[in-house]
Design brief:
The protein has about 170 residues and is mainly alpha-helical. It has helices at about 5-30, 35-70, 75-85, 85-105, 110-115, 150-165. The chain is about 70% helix and about 0% strand. The chain is globular and about 55 Å long. The termini are close together. About 20% of the residues are buried. This is RiboL-PSP-HEPN domain-containing protein.
Length: about 170
């Protein structure tokens, strides 16, 4: 595989650290007074995490397509994982694949699949009828999947694990 899986953690750690520093600074500013700009900046930080997660998955799919010489890198990766008997990794991949799809496209088949197994997911989704993940959290952006630092790190870990399993010798 391309060195993408080697670089992903560096990129994620760098970005999450920079976002945390900015978040801390903004929260400190909010201690002395409320401001629309500060609230919008907190929301921007949350949105950046969504962009980070969806972007890394998009790049990963492109790399898979190139390395595996196929038109649908994710489908090919899923097939390889099944053939190798990596059922747990396959299932984890499906969950995050659906989550990224929901972040990109909203409600649909992927969202319905996540709702059906919402109690066993390693991340939170907004269930039908829910408006917020945390009522009163001014930093929250409107997504159906909660994208926090752990979600982003889990995406990176998943990419690394899948890359190792399907590495072309």
């Amino acid at each position: 595989m391309h060195s993408f899986d080697d670089l992903i953690y560096r990129s994620i750690a760098f970005t999450l650290n920079a976002l945390e520093e900015a978040n801390s600074k903004i929260l400190h500013e909010l201690q002395t007074g409320a401001s629309t700009i500060a609230v919008k900046n907190l929301q921007m930080i949350q949105l950046q995490k969504v962009i980070l997660a969806t972007g890394m998955f998009s790049m990963f799919e492109s790399i898979l397509q190139e390395e595996l010489s196929c038109r649908n890198g994710f489908e090919e990766a899923k097939n390889i994982l099944i053939q190798k008997g990596k059922d747990e990794l396959h299932d984890r991949f499906i969950n995050f694949y659906y989550a990224i799809n929901v972040l990109e496209h909203g409600k649909g088949k992927s969202y319905d699949a996540l709702v059906a197994k919402s109690g066993s997911l390693p991340f939170r989704i907004k269930l039908p009828g829910e408006n917020f993940f945390e009522e009163g959290d001014v930093s929250e952006v409107s997504t159906l999947v909660e994208v926090d630092d752990q979600f982003v790190l889990n995406c990176a870990d998943l990419i690394e694990q899948i890359s190792k399993e399907i590495r072309i010798e």
